[in-house]
Write a sequence for this structure.
């Protein structure tokens, strides 16, 4: 039986002295885009010696565009010397909230959205809620009332009392009543 020309058999070296295990080698072509270099490797190897490391593969070299600050922020060139308070309406469609920010003479970038929609996730969630017809949360957090003076005095009184155990502790064995 003749072997195919592109399949080679070789012995591995780290398997012991003379156990005679065989490793199947093939002439393969590199799968890296634009390489197609021929190399000798196992049937599962995909890349030549030049492209075996993860660093050298194509997906690592795809540059990611850094987001521009103008995409999600207002760029305002202030002409005033003093800080100014400015109130604007949120730039997100369907959101009618007003928000206030301070314009400083040495800053150019200011928020475009209200406090409820500052992050990309919150904006996408709001748009999804609107598109499905559900009412998005209004952003009102639950307010907790302060305790009255009586409640504060009661807490001080309760904390100042010695700790009372509801059930008496067990007496050690052998002790007399």
């Amino acid at each position: 039986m003749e072997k195919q020309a592109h399949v080679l058999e070789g012995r591995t070296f780290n398997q012991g002295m003379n156990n005679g295990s065989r490793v199947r080698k093939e002439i393969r072509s590199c799968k890296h885009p634009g390489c197609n270099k021929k190399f000798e490797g196992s049937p599962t190897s995909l890349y030549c010696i030049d492209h075996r490391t993860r660093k050298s593969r194509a997906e690592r070299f795809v540059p990611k565009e850094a987001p521009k600050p103008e995409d999600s922020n207002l760029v305002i060139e202030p002409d005033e010397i003093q800080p100014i308070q400015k109130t604007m309406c949120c730039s997100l469609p369907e959101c009618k909230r007003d928000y206030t920010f301070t314009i400083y003479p040495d800053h150019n970038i200011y928020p475009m959205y209200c406090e409820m929609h500052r992050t990309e996730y919150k904006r996408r969630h709001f748009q999804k809620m609107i598109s499905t017809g559900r009412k998005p949360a209004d952003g009102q957090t639950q307010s907790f009332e302060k305790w009255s003076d009586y409640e504060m005095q009661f807490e001080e009184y309760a904390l100042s009392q010695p700790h009372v155990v509801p059930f008496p502790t067990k007496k050690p064995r052998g002790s007399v009543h």
User: Anything to note?
Assistant: Residues 69-131 form one domain.
